[in-house]
Amino acid sequence: MEKLTEEELQELEKQLSCPEGDNGINVGNIMNESNINMTLSGIEAMDVQNQDKILELGHGNCGHLYKILKKAEDVEYTGLEISETMWQYCKENYTDTTASFLLYEGQKIPFEENQFDFVLSVNNVYFWTKPFTFIKEIEKVLKVGGSCIISFAQKSFMEKLPFVRDKFTLYDDQAIRNLVANTNLHVESIQSFNDVVTSKLGDSVNRFYGVAVLKKGK
Description:
The protein has a single domain, classed as Rossmann fold (3-Layer(aba) Sandwich). It has eight helices and seven strands. It has helices spanning 6-17, 21-34, 36-44, 65-69, 84-93, 131-141, 155-158, 173-179, and strands spanning 53-57, 76-81, 100-103, 116-122, 142-153, 185-198, 204-216. The protein has a seven-stranded mixed β-sheet with strand order 3-2-1-4-5-7-6, sandwiched between helices. 36% of the residues are buried.
């Protein structure tokens, strides 16, 4: 494949962190397709019960929404996005569900304490500008005994990608453990996976990723 220019790589990084405009819709579709295994692994890690409340951070085009809603009966799903393009897309395309979608600024989760049974984050931990402050926000909105599920591509994989620049903070298993070390969240498990996917540049790559289950204590 022909290599992207420096300008094109910078634009791709920008769109991956916050899809915008017509190109953002296209990027959102590509991300949903390329991230689907990571998303499904995250969904599988949630032991959802009837009437559970789920908050997803950075839902993108939410092509996986029906998988979540089918986990149990009367599941209450809320999606939070910093991308106005993705937020508007989901509001227009999932009117046949009870899911709600909210736009926020990416720093403070706009809910009171102890609201959700699960918080799901797939492939967006890299973009948290103040990771410890944000993980405390997640801890705040989780119910006691609730879990935060973080699906993340491993640092060893991500650091080889040419479009991964200053907007990304990379993680491995230990970095996830360090992130929650001084919180009321404890690492229940971190599962390791790998799959072969088409990268954002169009070539096939072997991706290594983890799914962390972080449970809120009393």
